Amino acid sequence: MAIIELTIIPIGTASTSLSQYVADIQQVLEQAPEPIHYQMTSMSTLIEGDLNDLFEIIRRMHEVPFTHGAERVSTSIKIDDRRDKQGSMAQKMKSVEEKMHK
Fold first, then answer.
1. Which structural domain, as residue segments, surrounds residue 81?
2. Which family is this sequence assigned to (predicted)?
């Protein structure tokens, strides 16, 4: 299972407010038929699932600002694809918390 952190930034919009774009992009995740888990943060979105599924979802998410009038979109992606054992966002957080409370 891969974990991806991504940030999608619409450029060339009529306003400096981007919350409607963010809401519309999050709808792609809510409606995704692929088996994924995701978490929106104030600066990015984390998604975990099969890497091929995640790439397809990211492509759909990247297109949303264009369909809402953005003239340019910048998407940044970081991928954590560990293959020696199963991991998840929750497992990674638990591992760090356990080490903090030793």
1. 2-100
2. Belongs to the UPF0045 family.
- pLDDT tens digits for 57-83? 999 999 999 999 899 999 999 999 988
Q: Give how many domains the chain has, as a whole number.
A: 1
Q: What is the CATH number of the domain that holds 56?
A: 3.30.70.930
d(CA 66, CA 13): 10
What SS3 class is residue 21?
Answer: helix
Predicted model pTM:
0.84
Residue 60 CB: number of other CB atoms within 10 A? 13
